[in-house]
Backbone:
């Protein structure tokens, strides 16, 4: 067999260079992808609490891969594309299928339509984020980010299962509403704070460390309930920001200045 040179010629003046792939950030992305796939498998086996927890694990891993890439200067176009595909599984397909298997299956067409709307909205949200990444305000997301939407959907399943709420007809309609709300809010223009302006390498006052310890203590008391309430608050705060922006009076130029 002939040995190929480092550059494989495609034609006159064209060359395809072999590009290496950074291992560390893509390991986190692969782990997030595995967690999302694992959630789907567990939902198919009716282990809904485990499935919901797996989606939360995927959310943590998804937040780490980007941080690791920036801290180690290993960002790459491959990593960005791989991350989006992983997000589509972990925060699009997985939450939709978990919710469908848990509550929406018994609603017939209404059930699978809600699951599809959520899944399609995730794909549209990710596509819009990738194309607008250089033109939007970094401090705010345009629409509900897909990990937070997944946390809303999976969190509802987790907290209901933890509290022993039986899946009666009324809970199915609440589950349908949560799924549709999360899906539709992802593709709106509602601003959601991104926390990207927080510098983790900057020194902070001592009270910040105490606040983090207190928050972790509170979450540990009842993780399903506290985490779900936190993401409900986050999922609503964007509309509060939108209303506050609309209520601000327009800027009037001082007298004597051209309008």
Residues:
């Amino acid at each position: 067999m002939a040995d190929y040179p480092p550059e494989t010629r495609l034609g006159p003046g064209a060359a395809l260079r072999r590009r290496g792939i950074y291992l560390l950030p893509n390991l986190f992305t692969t782990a997030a992808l595995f967690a999302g796939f694992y959630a789907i498998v567990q939902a198919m086996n009716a282990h809904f609490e485990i499935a919901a927890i797996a989606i939360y694990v995927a959310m943590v891993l998804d937040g780490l891969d980007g941080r690791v890439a920036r801290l180690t200067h290993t960002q790459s176009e491959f990593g960005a594309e791989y991350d989006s595909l992983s997000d589509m599984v972990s925060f699009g397909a997985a939450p939709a299928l978990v919710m469908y298997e848990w509550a929406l299956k018994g609603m017939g067409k209404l059930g699978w339509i809600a699951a599809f709307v959520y899944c399609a909205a995730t794909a549209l949200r990710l596509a819009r984020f990738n194309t607008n990444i250089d033109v939007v305000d970094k401090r705010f997301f345009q629409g509900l980010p897909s990990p937070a939407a997944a946390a809303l959907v999976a969190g509802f399943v987790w907290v209901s299962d933890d509290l022993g709420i039986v899946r009666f007809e009324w809970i199915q309609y609440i589950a349908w509403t949560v799924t549709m709300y999360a899906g539709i809010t992802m593709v709106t223009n509602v601003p959601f704070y991104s926390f990207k302006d927080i510098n983790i390498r900057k020194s902070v006052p001592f009270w910040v460390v105490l606040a983090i310890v207190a928050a972790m203590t509170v979450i540990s008391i009842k993780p399903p309930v506290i985490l779900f309430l936190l993401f409900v608050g986050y999922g609503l705060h964007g509309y509060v920001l939108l209303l506050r922006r609309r209520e601000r009076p327009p800027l009037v130029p001082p007298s004597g200045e051209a309008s």
In short: The longest helix spans residues 77-102. The beta strands are 7-11, 14-17, 140-142, 191-193.
